[in-house]
Design goal:
It is a single chain. The chain is mostly beta strands and 109 residues long. The protein is built from no helices and 10 strands. 28% of the residues are buried.
Length: 109
């Protein structure tokens, strides 16, 4: 049973940092393309960062230089380190591969 469970969201002041985690079960994260998406109120879901099986990473323009996507193969977990957070980063963040996680709320004030 393939499942993704996000955690690590919360409320933070602008300029602060958060690290989101996405624990995977039913498959191995290193063998799949994985991505983080976010959806702000009233807006469409958008991609934030992705990592492919050979480790190449990509970021949306707004995330580049502030966010880092990574995998811990031993823990079978995907991460998103978010630094220098801005109010416009407020959204529900989802990790995804062939399935979606339930999302974790990030609020920046």
């Amino acid at each position: 049973h393939v499942q993704l469970v996000e955690s690590g969201g919360g409320s933070v002041q602008a300029g602060g940092s958060l690290r989101l985690s996405c624990a995977a079960s039913g498959f191995t994260v290193s063998t799949y393309c994985m991505a983080w998406f976010r959806q702000a109120p009233g807006k469409e879901r958008e991609a934030v960062a992705a990592v492919v099986t050979d480790g190449i990473k990509s970021y949306t323009h707004s995330a580049k230089g502030r966010f880092t996507i990574s995998r811990d193969n031993a823990k079978n977990t995907l991460y998103l380190q978010m630094n220098s957070l801005k109010t416009e980063d407020t959204a529900v963040y989802y990790c995804a591969t062939s399935v979606w996680g339930q999302g974790t709320q990030v609020t920046v004030s």
